[in-house]
Amino acid sequence: MDLTTALDLLEQETAQLDALVSGLPPAQWETPTPAAGWTVADQIAHLHWTDTAALQSVTGDPAFDELLRAAAQAGASGFVDSEAHRLAALPQEELLAAWRQGRDRLAAALREADPGERLRWFGPPMRPLSMVTARIMETWAHGLDVHDALAVPKPAGPALAAVARLGVRTRGFSFASRGLEAPEAEVRVELELPGKEPLVFGPAEAADRVTGTAWGFAAVVTQRRNLADVELAAEGEGAQAWLEIAQAFAGGPTQGPAPGERVTAAAGGTR
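Above: the chain sequence. Below: its structure as tokens.
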């Protein structure tokens, strides 16, 4: 996947979420989401905040240095929560306008970025394509939180291809972040994506396998669904161990929902 294709997927995924929330009455803007303490407004505020931070990184804005220091002093988790709540307090139309402007500016900056440049981030530096892929994953995951909160099924869209690739690439990280050694055996991943060729990763001869829908895989690796609640199967101890702790996003290790905890309004991925 090249940078232009990834940016187009990010635009599609963000536009879909924008269409969902833009017409909400104020009362629904305050609807709690499955993320403890976060409303629909907090979810959009977080996406806007992260877009702003990414733009600062891409453009070399000195404000990014201040952001890194503030996050280090406050602790990553608490800092992210406080920033989401701060921006969520903005009037609904003001936050929506800022989110739209910020993501457009980020996309424009990334289109002009040197593809080989290593961009600073809260974790290891990453190239522009990796940053866009991470933005797709986060938008999809937080978008699913919003869909669940509003009891609106989330369709299986083309952005799932990028989320799935990131989910596969972070298999080693899922183990390493917990101080565990990843199983040596490779895993074959075969995922169905409506209207597209299947997504396939890993050697065909691998004994350990993950098969099912791209929607289900994305929901598991972003810790929005339990393996038991999606159309996804793991064969082999290594594949099973991976999907029990899969984590496609950076930061300290966290645990996804228990079986049956998040199954309402799931589209394209529930059993």
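Confidence is low (pLDDT under 50) at residues 265-271.
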